[in-house]
Amino acid sequence: MTTMTTEATVPFEELLTRYEPALGLEVHVELNTATKMFCGCATGFGQEPNSQTCPICLGMPGALPVVNATAVESAIRIGLALNCSIAPWCRFARKNYFYPDMPKNFQTSQYDEPIAFDGWLDVEIPAEDGEGMATFRVQIERAHMEEDTGKSTHVGGATGRIQGADYSLVDYNRAGIPLIEIVTRPLTGAGARAPEVAKAYVSALRDLMRALDVSDVKMEQGSMRCDANVSLMPIGSTTLGTRTETKNVNSLRSVERAIRYEMSRHAAVLDGGGSILQETRHWHEDTGVTTSGRPKSDADDYRYFPEPDLVPVAASTELVERLRTTLPENPALRRKRLQEEWSFTDLEMRDVINAGAIELIEETVTAGATPAAARKWWTGDLARRANNDGLPVTDLGVTPAHIAELHQLIQAGRLNDSMARQVLEGVVSGEGTPTQVADARRLTLVQDDGALQAAVDAVIAANPDVVEKIQGGKVQAAGALIGAVMKAMRGQADAAKARELILETLGVEG
Ligand code: ZN
Ligand code: MN
Known about the structure:
Helix content is 37%, strand content 19%. By secondary structure, it is of the alpha+beta class. Strand 12 and strand 13 (289-295) form a beta hairpin. The longest helix is centred in the middle third of the chain and has 20 residues, at 252-271. The protein binds zinc ion (ZN) and manganese (II) ion. Zinc ion is lined by residues 36, 39, 41, 53-54, 56-57, 176.
């Protein structure tokens, strides 16, 4: 059993009066290529352990690697999207260290010759004055290619850590999966906003990878992982303090929390006259603290040397320029453009983003609905339903075409709002398209004006007191009569039409 001691911390707001943070973010992105970085093994997630391996990714003596061309193209596209320069010539390097989940005892990575370098990414955080957004430019030092390691499982202990475990299992399915590591330059000048900037950066990076379609960027499955370097320096100083590196922070929220915690912990150590131990830290999601990992000095000797079994990568200008033409619209600019096109307020757009519904609304509008109607359904009933079921809204079985069709049925006067909700329920339950559900459930507004007039006449006759009020000038009292008419029609009437008929029958101007 490891015992967890609580370390001293300084309240976040207080430490900012004395210290300025510097962050360095290292994000590993697993590429979604069909095969591994240096062999033909498949890359599917969650397969039978060690079923996707071969002599190359198991590091057998004499096995020779071959570079995955698609992975190189993805690396170049990522570099270009991050405004990096692309190296006309670069090499892989061996990073030597011993770890049981790394069968070759070295990781094939890149060292002083990364494929992409010197870029930047603009990220947005809510402006200090609460109005609109503020832009923060994160400088990118490099993006390089490497391979993932295998995965160890420690069995028998209480914590799942190696300490106290009875035995350990290693699964090499992940060994050799292509990774791109994206490293920022020290991020300073953000002060109190530093943890938010870090979270916004990882979020923007995730959006960008998705838009590029190079990774499924699932932080919870580890296909995107963030290591956060944190240090503090006294305000006014320009010398970076000693840093710690918090490993594998696996959600956006954790990125922000882990950095806040480390800043608070560093401040307590420095205030007490101590010095920060340069080390890796483990983030604990449940308790919201980090604990000590292993010491890590700058002089850590990985004995890097150029990989002799792989030829250098030299992408031609033509290839780079062709890949540049495949870049998607920048996700942040795209959001701005769509917000204008759709005439959504900042608040409405935020709801849409939070619901993960941008693409859905775009497709629903293309299928013929108005932006307002598309937003109403996707961020309203459907977002609530998805939230209740713990599913992404895209997994409800409702398509943009369904919502556009539902909208047409309302526009055409066949359904009112509450009937449309019932129809949507049917679609979610797999009963068919909106028209099929409306037909099967006999949901249709009564188009027979005679029947509606008869109901109006009956309601007027039954409510002389309400009629008196309306005729005395209180037109809003008509609401009670409309309700009674809708009830008489079993909800299958057009409420606006009922109102019109009531006022017309009573000879009152609406
Ligand atoms: Zn293999
Ligand atoms: Mn790495």
